[in-house]
Write a structure and sequence with these properties.
The chain is an alpha+beta fold. The protein has two domains: 219 residues, PPM-type phosphatase domain (Phosphatase 2c, domain 1), CATH 3.60.40.10; 166 residues, no CATH class. It is built from ten helices and 18 strands. Strands 2-3-4-5-9-8 form a six-stranded antiparallel sheet. Strand 4 and strand 5 form a beta hairpin. Helix 7 crosses helix 9 and helix 7 runs parallel beside helix 10. The longest helix is centred in the N-terminal third of the chain and has 20 residues. The radius of gyration is 24 Å and the shape is elongated.
Length: 391
């Protein structure tokens, strides 16, 4: 095991007029730290394609995560899925990226556009071995991973995206590869890169896609720890223990909540400086400063906003520009958690805040606990390692 990890992001747009996407991405993590990513493209579009791609990706990812061979996976798919009357085949096309303990990437490709591999900002060729299973030609590759490596898997709705009128009527895999390579050294997350790619496809389609289009980006990076202190402990006698554990952890530190910040400042014997500027355009309270702490914010309101951004990030990522370019407390937490951190430790105090007990304030202890629980779940869905400790 090394200190590399995979940042994984994917996004799809549906064929115009279809409620369901005919492409599907499935990600399964194994106990040994390996990860199996499958992008499947069901034949046709709509409900039938959605069923084919979902079953294909689920079957392959689950079987490979259990250590079964690609031959067994393909044979199972051929025997399990229904044969389509129009095409006479029983499964969708697929791309598999198997990250073995973050040391090696095994690529297995069947009839999807070739996976793009970018290293040090350059589109890089890689060897492929041809194998035949159930009468199908499948290509297999093995690549030793390095920090910064980038993989782009896509369905065939991405290449040649156009509406017949747009300025670019022949967007090939090579063009897509260069498009992503140009962005690869900017530090954008995998989610942002695939969002930019799929949004470009949508634009070339004239926002009326003639096919389902899906992109999945995998970015290899170093692990980055982050620590969040949210609320004082239920027992005042636990303050020093909570602070000692928090400040002994490796990584950047975020403190959320006025009372919590006061306790931390006292523990560090440093002044707590509250910023007085407040933007009328922001619904997030101002931040504070403590020497030795990377970010100090208000508590429940700010974290509630972070949760809203996290939920959107996992869906359409429509609020990206709002928090990515924002300077308020919630935006800065999002920048640290979504884009920088890989391993996140929550230190959550269970104390009731007297300021929140008035009937006219829609804030309660239960809301704080819900925010922690739901935000932790969102971060895990982003591929982060999350640990929550209660005091």
């Amino acid at each position: 095991m090394n200190d590399l990890c995979a940042d994984i992001g994917y996004k799809s747009i549906n064929h115009a007029g279809e409620e369901l996407c005919g492409d599907h991405v499935d990600v399964v993590s194994k106990e040994d730290g390996s990860t199996v990513i499958v992008l499947a493209d069901g034949l046709g579009s709509g409900v039938q394609a959605s069923i084919l791609s979902t079953l294909t990706s689920k079957i392959i990812s689950t079987m490979m995560a259990e250590g079964l061979s690609i031959e067994e996976c393909v044979s199972t798919i051929a025997a399990t899925l229904p044969v389509t009357g129009k095409h006479g085949v029983a499964y969708s096309t697929f791309t598999i990226i198997n990250l073995v303990r973050n040391h090696t990437a095994e690529l297995i490709q069947y009839d999807n556009p070739q996976v793009v591999f970018i290293r040090d900002g350059d589109v890089t060729d890689y060897p492929m071995t041809e194998i035949h299973i159930e009468g199908k030609t499948i290509y297999r590759s093995t690549i030793r991973l390095q920090e910064g490596d980038l993989f782009v898997a896509m369905s065939d709705g991405c290449p040649h995206a156009n509406d017949g009128i747009a300025y670019n009527n022949d967007w090939k895999v090579e063009d897509i590869a260069q498009f992503v390579a140009d962005m690869s050294l900017t530090g954008y997350t995998a989610k942002v890169l695939c969002t930019m790619l799929v949004d470009e496809c949508d634009k070339l389609y004239g926002h009326h896609p003639l096919d389902d289009a899906t992109a999945c980006v995998v970015r290899i990076r170093r692990r980055v720890p982050m620590n969040i202190l949210f609320g004082p402990p239920a027992d005042r006698d636990d303050c020093n223990r909570m602070m000692s554990l928090f400040f002994s952890k490796e990584g950047k530190r975020i403190i959320c909540g006025g009372t919590t910040a006061t306790i931390a400042a006292k523990y560090l014997r440093k002044p707590l400086n509250t910023k007085t500027e407040y933007s009328a355009k922001s619904d997030v309270p101002p931040t504070s400063e403590i020497e030795g702490v990377d970010l100090v914010t208000e508590g429940v309101v700010t974290m509630g906003k972070v949760l809203t951004y996290a939920q959107d990030y996992l869906q359409g990522n429509e609020s990206y520009e709002e928090w990515n370019y924002g300077h308020d407390g919630a935006s800065r937490i999002c920048q640290l958690l979504f884009e920088e951190a890989t391993d996140i430790s929550f230190f959550v105090g269970r104390a009731m805040n007297p300021a929140h007990q008035y009937a006219d304030l829609p804030i309660s202890f239960d809301i704080k606990m819900r925010i922690v629980e739901e935000l932790s779940g969102c971060l895990r869905d982003m591929g982060k390692r999350v640990r929550v400790s209660y005091f």
